[in-house]
Amino acid sequence: MSVEPAGGPLVELRDVNKHFGALHVLRDINLSVARGEVVVVIGPSGSGKSTLCRTINRLETIDSGTIAVDGHPLPAEGKELARLRADVGMVFQAFNLFAHKTVLQNVTLGPVKAKGVKKSEAEKTAMELLDRVGVADQARKLPAQLSGGQQQRVAIARALAMKPKVMLFDEPTSALDPEMINEVLEVMIGLAHDGMTMIVVTHEMGFARRAANRVVFMDAGSIVEEATPEEFFTNAQSDRARDFLSKIL
Ligand code: ADP
Ligand code: MG
């Protein structure tokens, strides 16, 4: 039997099923993510990776099964739901910063509005976070004045400002020009090394090899295979995973 770290898994999905109409998009998903663990989720387009992230963040409901973050199960409503959601930071493919707010305002808005943090305190924390992701000098600009890589780093800072227990990344670099991918991945690798619990949907094998503890391969709504990055990329067990890897590597 494996030894669970103190406090049990930070994120736990048990027998989770989800349909969109007739489409069975998540099939009996079982996934435990330990504190400090970095899990990379890969799989073909349409396999359910984004839906998986969205259910963990409570942006989507589930039909059956349970999802718990830090021991707090779904379903949750109202204030309780808002509090649980703050535990889960999310960074999407498209940088969805507020276009008419400055970079600094983008990062302070959540803590001030949703957590009642004093503006001066929120700004101090925001500047520290912007410095950490390397864009402190952009704080007074509007998002459109930044490059895509800079905007995505602001999105990471904005998520971190809520002090989440786990960070979800859904293809955070797939909308970026190639020369900007690494600056975002470096920030994510730094977070991983600092002990952040992370679930990362990405096809960036370099990131998986450097930062992931585990790779989860999804196909057609199911988790088909789980392995260390080393194992997965050199010795995938299932035909579906080998077929997928042959197309992307
Ligand atoms: P992935 O992120 O792996 O590409 P998604 O989770 O986005 O996959 O989608 C899984 C399947 O669910 C796809 O077939 C997609 O078309 C479908 N789907 C996703 N969101 C919705 C929705 N809101 N309504 C109906 N079908 C959806
Ligand atoms: Mg997706």
UniProtKB/TrEMBL annotation:
Catalytic activity, reaction form: a polar amino acid(out) + ATP + H2O = a polar amino acid(in) + ADP + phosphate + H(+)
Membrane topology: Peripheral membrane protein
Domain of life assignment: Bacteria
UniProt keyword annotation of Transport present: yes
EC numbers on record: 7.4.2.1
Pfam families cross-referenced by the UniProt entry: ABC_tran
Record localization: Cell membrane
Keywords: Amino-acid transport, ATP-binding, Cell membrane, Membrane, Nucleotide-binding, Transport
A cellular component annotation (GO) from this entry: plasma membrane
SMART domains referenced in this protein's UniProt entry, alphabetically: AAA (SM00382)
Domain ABC transporter: 11-245
GO molecular function list: ATP binding; ATP hydrolysis activity; ATPase-coupled polar amino acid-transporter activity
Main location: membrane
PANTHER family: AMINO ACID IMPORT ATP-BINDING PROTEIN, GLUTAMATE_ASPARTATE IMPORT ATP-BINDING PROTEIN GLTL
Family to which the UniProt record says this protein belongs: Belongs to the ABC transporter superfamily.
Protein's recorded name: ABC-type polar-amino-acid transporter
Species: Jiangella alkaliphila
Lineage: Bacteria, Bacillati, Actinomycetota, Actinomycetes, Jiangellales
